[in-house]
Design brief:
Number of helices: 6
Strand content: 35-45%
Distance between the termini: 26 Å
Radius of gyration: 33 Å
Structural class: alpha+beta
Helix content: 10-25%
Shape: flat
Number of domains: 3
Oligomer: single chain
Number of strands: 24
Largest sheet: 6 strands, antiparallel, barrel
Length: 366
């Protein structure tokens, strides 16, 4: 009998021989409004490639190279420009909050033409802009692709993805994204997973810490915290103190199914209404045996191979299992194991139970 492997929170803690704790730090479940990353983007050229750059038909690379040379005082006819050692790329980066001018951040370089590899290339100075078209950083440096592409024609070998790479610390920040914490009178905490119960518990935990009604849940996603007088001008200290508080997180009951791998993950809050489950299998087996028809001695007959087919049909014994309403996930697993269902059978059973309204949980198939 195949057993069903189901991952639950309680199971993980029991395997680790730990007492299950359902509280989480506030810093792990919320973000602070205004304290966020910002994405920037730029168009540039990677040079120094060993014949693996864009092909001659990539017109925007030719135009970009000719324009770049003209800015250096070299006037060339775009028709005379060869670009096999040059690749047009898009450069992306993320500016963390509070980063200062002069700091460095990593950039990702991705080919947008028909270059076959950026191996050994160097990114020329590329301005990186935000959606407001302001330049916030400038990127330049050697591209690391973490792989290679070798060989010619049909005899090639490739490791990883050679048309995209990174430049660690390749962007120099020129403009700061200002976040004025000092003037804040209200701190908005946004839950990563929206839930009214968690938002209420979050506000109560903060109020217990502050000793006053300073936190107010305004929706399932947001809790507003008024800055107390004793923390005026000390916003960082207030946020640091709030982040370390523990809150018991609530969540919707959910069952996640992966039909490709037969993986089933259930939360501990999954409940099932009273339902009867019948499980049985029908097996059809077709077996072919090759038999030889041998002629008699000194006859003019020929040896003939005659296939003999045998068809059998076997229907497994059906079992009807009654599952009482309100049972826990552990009882459900034991009951389904008792009738010998496999993970793929269980997927079909859970889908049918959801359709019948007996599964009190969200069913998600990935």
């Amino acid at each position: 009998m195949k057993k069903i492997i189901i991952i639950t929170t309680t199971l993980i803690f029991s395997l680790l021989n730990l007492t299950p704790l359902f509280a989480a730090r506030i810093k792990d479940i919320v973000t602070i409004e205004g304290v966020r990353d910002n994405q920037i983007l730029g168009y540039g050229l990677v040079i120094g490639l060993n014949g693996t750059g864009d092909k001659q038909g990539t017109e925007f690379t030719i135009q970009s190279l000719a324009t770049m040379l003209s800015k250096q005082g070299i006037v060339v006819d775009p028709q005379d420009v060869k670009v096999k050692n040059v690749a047009a790329v898009m450069v992306t980066a993320t500016l963390p909050p509070f980063i200062k001018a002069g700091s460095k951040t990593d950039v990702l370089v991705s080919s947008i033409g028909d270059a076959t590899s950026l191996q050994g290339g160097t990114l020329l100075m590329t301005p990186l802009k935000a959606p407001n078209q302001q330049i916030y950083a400038v990127a330049q440096g050697p591209v690391s692709i973490g792989g290679f592409l070798g060989g010619k024609g049909g005899d090639t070998i490739q490791k990883n993805h050679p048309t995209a790479g990174r430049i660690p610390g390749g962007a120099l920040v020129e403009r700061e994204v200002k976040v004025d914490l000092g003037s804040m009178e209200l701190i908005a905490l946004t839950l990563n997973n929206q839930d009214f119960t968690t938002a209420l518990r979050l506000s109560k935990a903060i109020n217990n810490f502050l000793g006053e009604e300073g936190a107010e849940p305004v929706s399932s996603a947001t809790v507003n915290v008024r800055v107390p007088e004793k923390f005026r001008g000390r916003i960082v200290e207030l946020i640091a103190s709030i982040e370390t508080l523990d809150v018991r997180v609530d969540r919707n009951a959910k069952v996640v199914l992966n039909e490709r791998t037969g993986t089933i993950v259930m939360g501990e809050d999954v409940r099932i209404s009273t339902v009867a489950i019948s499980h049985g299998n029908l097996t059809i087996q077709i077996r072919t045996e090759q038999q030889v028809s041998q002629p008699l001695p000194f006859s003019k007959g020929q040896t003939v191979v005659v296939p003999q087919r045998e068809v059998t049909v076997e229907e497994g014994k059906g079992q009807l299992l009654l599952v009482d309403g309100g049972v826990s996930i552990g009882e459900v697993v034991r009951a389904l194991n008792a009738i010998g269902v496999t993970p793929r059978d269980l997927i079909a059973i859970l889908q049918a139970m959801k359709a019948a309204g007996a599964l009190q949980a969200e069913l998600e198939i990935i």
